[in-house]
Each structure stands twice: as structure tokens, then as C-alpha cells.
Give the backbone structure.
Amino acid sequence: VNESTCESCPFLTTSVKTDSVHDCFLTFDGVGLSLALCSIIPGAIIFVFVVRRLRARHASLKQRIQQTKLDESFEAVTELSHPMVLISAVDFCSFSITYLQEVGLHEGFRNAGYLVFLDTSEAIDQFKEKGRSIVFLSYQWLSWKKKGPDAVQHECMVKSIEQLCDDSGIGMLCLYVWLDVLSIPQSNRSLKSLAVNSLYSYAGKSDHLIIIAPESIHDATNELANVDTCKQRVWCRAEQSAFLYSGKSSLFLATDSLRRAPDSWIEEVSCVFEGDMTCCRLKHKDGRPCDRTSLVQPLIGMYFDLFARHMEGQLGPDCERIWDFISQNKSRVFPTTFLHSRLGKPPVTKKLFGNLIEATEQFVVSNRTRSSQMTTAMSTMKSSSTSEATAGAVVSILSARDKTLLEIQHANRLDAPSGLVDL
């Protein structure tokens, strides 16, 4: 039978010689195309289904990672990721800047037995219940090669501690110092990261914070360093904001003498990421990450604590003023992205906080009871209620040098809280 093209036949169909359109059938090309479509359509449906499943799984994984990050930030408010490490003011003030550098900062002073490690928030509270106070020293690094304070800053630290003791009536033996290069591990990056994540807790548990800002010179740039340059450093801003956000008000400024920091200080340092960082100035040589990202987790914890206390009406007058400023400048305080500078390459925009602030607020609103239990205010109440039963535990966290100092104090009949000698 011969096939012929029929004007009545649809596309890709033909017929034998007939006058009826009902006799049209698929050509070989039509059959091939039909078979191809029959295989492609189910394949396309399967492909779309698989893509949707993969996207859903990716979104779910992304959400779990974000929630894990939030949970770690929230827990860091009341649970330390790394012990709070202190040195007695007596020891600190007796060491020269040369000795500080020679011993080896955190690791060296740890191995020499000068440091006190407080493993939990409760341990810090018990430590302080014995009559001890903690001072947090915040300052600008003035070298790209040497870690820690320079000679001018170190002298200012010693004088400030002595003046704080004189003005407040705190005995030097009762005062302990938090200083970044002594209190944060410097050699092990993982331990260093854990300590940075607990920055808000360290600042919040401190009784005083002194901003060390005498006039000095940066040894790499020869630029003048003073109050204004200290105020511009991201790390300084983060430390000082953490102290003030926790509700503390004993903030001092040390230049040639010690005095109270002005009330306007919090507004000037709250926009942490508008400050300067050395890593950005050096354009992240060798592909190093920006230090800004290491501050996201502690600042999320800081905001969680502030927002949860705000929701429960637990903010005092000072914190209410801070809350008003943050709520009006949220995009500046917690920028969603930042410009990452690169050596020899154009800068790129990278995510900083993204939607973590909105996610934090949603968590607090949806989990009011749990959030309230995780705030610093509730932590303080719990610690107070259990202090009598656990007061003896503080003895185990004292270094041998601390006990010796206390024995000397008792022998010389110096004025001190009775709890300090009853160990």
C-alpha cells in the first residue's frame, strides 16, 4: 500500500489513498516523536520532583544550621563556652610589660600557675560571693606583630587599677583582672573561638570595665592612638557594648587619670561594625577570613538577652535607653551584609547577620517561657537561690598563689571581707 500526503491529515500523520480523514495515521517520524515524548514527559516530571525535594532538603538543612547557630548563641548568654580566666590584680600590677611578653601571655601565665579558671557562670558568682570583684580592661592593640598592650598602655592599666581600688574601697587582694591576651587562648584557634563566643558573659560578669586610652603611637603606622581611635576599634566597641548591654554602669575611661565614661559613650560604640579592624586594613592577606564574622555569635547572644528581658519587662533604666537606641538603629548595629576587602582584588559583599536578628525575635516571641529562663536576669536569680548549698565549691577554683595571698593577708590583719579568709 502506498502512503501519500493528505491535505486533511494533521501534522506528522499520513494516509493511504483515501478520501476519509479518519484513515490518517502517524508517520514514522510521528511515531518516533511520540515515543520520545512519552519518555521525556515522565522524565521531566521526575526531574521536577527531584529538584523540589532537593530544594526542600537544602532549605531544611539551612534552617537547621541557622537554628543550631542561634541555639549556641542563646546558650552562651548563661553557659560559658570557655572558662572565664582571670589574674589577681596584685600579680598583674607587679609584672612589667617585658615580663608579660616574655612569659608568653595566656599560655605562659597558665603554665606558670598565675591564672584562675572559672568553668561556669555559677562558679563566677560563687567566686564573687567571697568578696572578690572583677575588672575588665578594654584597649586598642597598637602593633601588628606584638599582642597585648604597649608600655604606655600597661602603665595606664596599673595606675587605673590602683586608682579604682583607692576610689571604690576595693582591696587589691580582692580584685581580679580580665585582659584579652591573658584571658583568651592565643595559640589554639578553636579554644580562642570558644572564648570569643563567651565575650558577652565575660563582660556581663565583670563588675567594672576600664577603657584604657592614653595617648600613644602605633608601632606599625606611627599614627597617634588616643580616646578617639580606641572608640573606633570594632573589638573595643564589642567589649564595651557587651558590658553596658548586660545592665552594668561602672564604666571608666583612663587616659592620664581614671574617670567615669560619659553617658553618651554607649551611643558612640553601639554600632560595632562601623568601627575599624586591622584585618580589613590589611585586606585579608592570604585569603584570611574577616574578624567581623567571629563577633556575630556573641552579639546574637547579646541581642537575644536584651530582647528577651525587654519582652519580660526586666530592663532597668540604663538598658531601656540602650534598647531605644538599638531598636531605632537595628540595621546599623546588626548589618545584614558587609564589604569584604581583598588584596589585589575588588571587594565583595558577604553575609554578616543576614536574617538572624529576625529569627532571634521570632524565637523569643514563640518561646516566651524558655527564653525568659535563658536570660542573664533569670541566671542571676538561680545562682542566688543555690549559693548557700554550693558556696564551698569555690575553693577548688582558687590557684595555689591565691591561697598564699589570702594567708598573707590574714597574717598581716589587713582589712578584707571575712569570706576571703574563711576558706
